[in-house]
Amino acid sequence: MKYFSLQTxxxxxAFLALGLLVLLPITLVLLRAFMPEGSFEGxxxxxxxxxxxxxxxxxxxxxxxxxxxxxxxxxxxxxxxxMARTDLKRHRWLDVLIMVPFMTPPYIGSMGWILAMxxxxxxxxxxxxxxxVTPLFFTYYGMVLVMSLHLFPFIYIIMRNTLxxxxxxxxxxxxxHGGKFFYRM
Length: 185
Fold this sequence. Notes:
This protein is mainly α. The protein has helices at 6-34, 52-85, 93-98, 100-103, 106-117, 122-126, 140-165, 168-176. It is extended, with a radius of gyration of 24 Å.
């Protein structure tokens, strides 16, 4: 008879907890969506997406998501390049500073932005000439900006690590084959 080690028991316990705490609730929600009255109704729950209101909500959500990806990438790419290819990489405290939006809970961040940018909010009280800019915060572009500022550390970390791992040999091979690249500064 084989005895289980403590590590093996911990591993199985973790999988069991994962199944009970994550997979079971998700399964129950999906079952409830496709079987609201206890009987399977096919793809009837997906028919809701055919209604004009929900189609518009879905389209706006996809537009917002695309805008945030583009905005966060535009913020992260130059910063990742500078931190991977210049002498700034020795200043590790900048990485910690960049990760602050990542470590801030979204609820706290959104409340801070709302309190700062609402009519007669903190920005207008401190800088009255900004009263013409603060209404723009509550538009599509304002939401894209705020969400991009909150999510760009994800893309930054991935891009910086990728650029740091590209060795000199790959850059030389690229230049031999006609590619243009930036030399290390």
